[in-house]
Design brief:
This protein has five helices and seven strands. By secondary structure, it is α/β, with parallel strands linked by helices. It has one domain: Rossmann fold, CATH 3.40.50. The strands form two sheets. Strands 4-3-5-6-7 form a five-stranded parallel sheet, with helices on both faces. The two termini are 13 Å apart.
Length: 131
């Protein structure tokens, strides 16, 4: 398949890059997506690492925090989308950042999930972005 994921035991398996400055949040994202058959191929703590890993690993999907040191998620998403206009990015963000989410959607981010989130909400966003 040219979309970058394949069927395994009847499930779509995507290669995912998780970007968040909090390790516990990266673990929550992983715990929501791995049981669905997805593979976590990389983790980044900030936007600079996110862009570098995206270019190196070419994941099918990126989950991206907005507020991070060095380069925030919006800047990283813009850079990734300039490099690859077909990149699939989901913003995972805290309440109160709605103004930033509007900007994220305008630049091409596929969806957003507000922290704290039930695993089903992230799974639904991932399915939508990968469709």
């Amino acid at each position: 398949m040219d979309v970058g994921y394949y069927i395994l035991w009847g499930k779509a398996m995507a290669k995912i890059l998780i970007v968040d400055d909090a390790k516990f949040m990266r673990t929550l994202v992983k715990d929501a997506l791995v049981p669905r058959g997805h593979e976590i191929i990389g983790e980044a703590e900030n936007g600079v690492e996110a862009v570098q890993l995206y270019k190196k690993l070419r994941p099918d999907l990126v989950t991206m925090d907005i507020t991070m040191r060095e380069k925030d998620g919006i800047e990283a998403a813009e850079e990734i989308l300039l490099f690859d206009p077909n990149a699939r990015i989901i913003m995972v963000t805290a309440l109160g950042q709605e103004n930033l989410l509007t900007r994220a959607i305008k630049i091409g981010v596929k969806d957003f999930v507000v922290k704290p989130f039930p695993p089903e909400r992230l799974q639904k966003a991932a399915d939508k972005a990968l469709a």
